[in-house]
Structure formats: structure tokens, C-alpha cells
């Protein structure tokens, strides 16, 4: 703000500093806990604290005037302000953990500034870079996509289109001279790259082929030491291994930095589906890990040390986690089942059950919840917190 800079610390103390000398000009406490940064617009500061207090301030060099102060929610149950306000089209937007507020005129002041179309600079120099687009792709088995190769010189200038050589690396499918890729319908899930080469210069795009629902995975076709190629975040954390005559997926415990991990095996837009998986954990030094399944960003977890079952909608926010006691044994296989269903009025119902794999599935759900501030879509996957190894097998994902 000209010769001043504004800063708010973790304890919600808002201060103004002189940009030349660095000296503090004034300070105002706006709460007890602070996460959001203040926003300056039209000579006013807009800022809120985690305790739900939102301020509109008029700062000056000599001090600050409070133009407006409101308590969002109540003092006992405040609406938490974590993010900074956003300003657009004459309005100030304030988001809390419960609502989005707009401050300003009923009709936004929208100003359009059309850009003058320009053509990118072109060149006839040698090819130095090949850009394949789209660069990241997710497709289904049997789906076809069009890829394009743009050529650039060493200065980043666009070159005229020219024929390139297309190749597949790690993918089963077909690629035409025009860059049309067709994923093999019977190959199931896979991951690899598509490359375009001209004059010994190569560019590429990464591609995942993710099966549609329903699908099942039992790891019998995977090589020991590998992990499913099209899964996200599994490499190095999980590996296929032969255990008691079967191939299963193991969450490794050799790296403390990846002890807790989530992997995703499906598309992120999925909703209204159920995931099932067999899980087992070992015990060492009286410690057991946690194992779970993910569906639509909800997680059903068997907690080893705590001997309980948790249904989590968002792991860091434990107030919405539903917990039931459940005693389970090490070196024993259990079946986990998590079903998530979108309801009316924006609600979501999540239900989970667990039982020993050798027994018949129970009729009743072990734990369930209706979330009024839910996740409406999300990928299926697995969760593990593994101080010692955890095992997964026989994964099924299907529509409700």
C-alpha cells in the first residue's frame, strides 16, 4: 500500500510496517488463530480469522479504523476462515468451512477487455523441441484419443507442421501416423507413454488406461516385485509378492517417509460405487498397522493399535469421523466393504462393514454416516499406515 506492507502472524496480530525502514507502524489483534492472509482493495483491508471474525479495515500510516466486524457462526461454534478473501467484478468473496459469502452489489460490475488476436512467431530453424499434447491423458479400454505434435526451435519459436514418427512405450494399442491412439479393448488397465520423433528429437505424453466399472484385481497376473502400472502413487510403496501360495499386494514398511500412503486405482469422476478388499496385517513389538479402502474420498480403516474401525470423510478433521470398536487379529485375513451413495439435497451416505474372510458377509453395516458437507465424487483406492507390512488382495469395485 504505497510505503506500507501488511502482515498477520499465526496469533492473529495484524501489523503494518514501513517499507523503507522496516519499523512497525501499528498492530491490531483480530482473533486468536490465523491462517488467511489479508487482502487490500480500494484502500481497505479484508481479513478473517479461524475463530470466525471477519473485518473490513481502513488502514493508514498512523493506525487502522474498523469499518465492519462480524462474527460468522457463533463464538462457541464459529465458521472457520482458512483461506483469504477473493475479489472480482466489484465483489468480495469470503469462504468459510460452511458457506461462501459475497459482499457487494447484487449485479456484479463486469468489465471486458478483449485481447487483440496475434499470431505466434514462426521460424524455419532446426527442430529443438517436440511438444505432444495433450500431455497427460486418462482413457478407458477401447477409447481413442487424438494427439498433436508441435515443433519448436531453440528459441521457443513455433515451426511449421511436419510428419513425425509415433511410437508406444509400455502401452498395448494402436497409433496411426496422424497421432490417433486406440487403447486395446481387452488389455485392461495399463500405463505408458506415446512419443513423437523427428530429426532425432523426441517429445512424449503420459497416458493411463483405467478400466470402467465393474472391475476386479487379484494380482495373480503381476510379476513379483512390481505394482499395478496404472495405479497412482503405488510405485516404490507397494509391491506384489507371493504369500501362502497366492500373489498379493504388500504395503512395504522399509521407508518411514512413505509409511502412510494412499493409492488410487480408478477415475476421479466416479461416484455411487462400492469397493471391497481383503486385508491382513502382521504384528511386531506389539504394534500393528492400519489398513483401509477409499471410495469417493471416504476411507474405511481398520486401526491396528486402536483395535477399531473408522469411517473417515476427511482424515485431518476427526470431528466427522465415525468410530466403532472392532477387535481384529494379526496374520488373519478380513474383508472390508465400503459403499458410498449420493443422496438428495447434496448429502452423501457412506456405509462400511468388516468380517473375517472365512465367514459369510453379515447383513448389517458395521458403521455408517450421512454427510451433509460431502465429497460427491472421487477415485477408489487403498489406504495403509504400515509400521509393519500390510497385505491386500481380491479387490472389487462396482456400481451400487
How would you portray this structure in words?
The protein has 400 residues and is mostly beta strands. Strands 20, 21, 22, 24, 31, 32, 33 and 35 form an eight-stranded antiparallel sheet that branches. Helix content is 0%, strand content 48%. Strand 27 (290-295) and strand 28 (298-303) form a beta hairpin. 29% of the residues are buried. The model has no long low-confidence stretch (mean pLDDT 94). The chain folds into three domains: 4-103, Lipocalin (Beta Barrel), CATH 2.40.128; 129-209, Immunoglobulin-like (Sandwich); 215-399, Jelly Rolls, CATH 2.60.120. The radius of gyration is 27 Å and the shape is globular. The protein is built from no helices and 35 strands.
- The shape, in one word, is globular
Distance between the termini: 56 Å
Mean pLDDT: 94
What's the helical proportion of residues?
under 10%
Could you please say which CATH topology of the largest domain applies here? Jelly Rolls
Low-confidence stretches: none
What count of helical segments does DSSP give? 0
Number of structural units classed as domains: 3
Derived structural class? mainly beta
Radius of gyration: 27 Å
Number of strands: 35
Q: What does the largest sheet look like?
A: 8 strands, antiparallel
Which percent range describes the beta-strand content? over 45%
